[in-house]
């Protein structure tokens, strides 16, 4: 059977980009069971409230929800189990060092298949304050208004 090519996004965490300032991103593999992979291929996963944490020199993904596989039997997985992230030692040490400095956390942004392998995009992030979120919303609204007006001008429909 030919291997898949390209990138197929299964789930994305839009709330993370709203709640955190993203400093750096990494691509990590995940240690999954067979029924978890089948459930992901069906496009079923949720990253709401998920986070990564270091334990014994390794990174683990907590609170990610992959529902049970519908055709699974007694071998089905637990939906919110802790999953090991697969990264290079240098990347793990860098992430752990930055989170220990203070104020930073590791959040998952996307789960996807890259050339047939399940991957998760994780980010080193700093929590935003509520006024930062309001500034981001105001900036986005202003940019949208500018794009709308310039689009109307390009079509010759001046206000």
Question: How would you describe the overall organization of this protein?
Answer:
The protein has helices spanning 14-19, 34-41, 89-101, 130-154; strands spanning 7-12, 20-30, 51-55, 58-62, 83-86, 104-114, 117-127. The chain is built from 4 helices and 7 strands. The protein is globular. The model has no long low-confidence stretch (mean pLDDT 85). Strand 3 (51-55) and strand 4 form a beta hairpin. The longest helix is centred in the last third of the chain and has 25 residues, at 130-154. Helix content is 33%, strand content 33%. It has 159 residues and is an alpha+beta fold. Strands 1-6-7-2-5-4-3 form a 7-stranded antiparallel sheet.
Can you give keywords for this protein?
159 residues, alpha+beta, globular
Give the overall form.
Answer: globular
Largest beta sheet: strand ordering? 1-6-7-2-5-4-3
What does the largest sheet look like? Answer: 7 strands, antiparallel
Please, how many helices?
4
End-to-end gap: 58 Å
Radius of gyration: 19 Å
Task: Give the helix/strand class.
Answer: alpha+beta
Count of DSSP strands:
7
User: Mean pLDDT, as a whole number?
Assistant: 85
Q: Show unreliable segments.
A: none
The helix/strand order is EHEHEEEHEEH
The proportion of residues in beta strands is 25-35%
Helix content: 25-40%
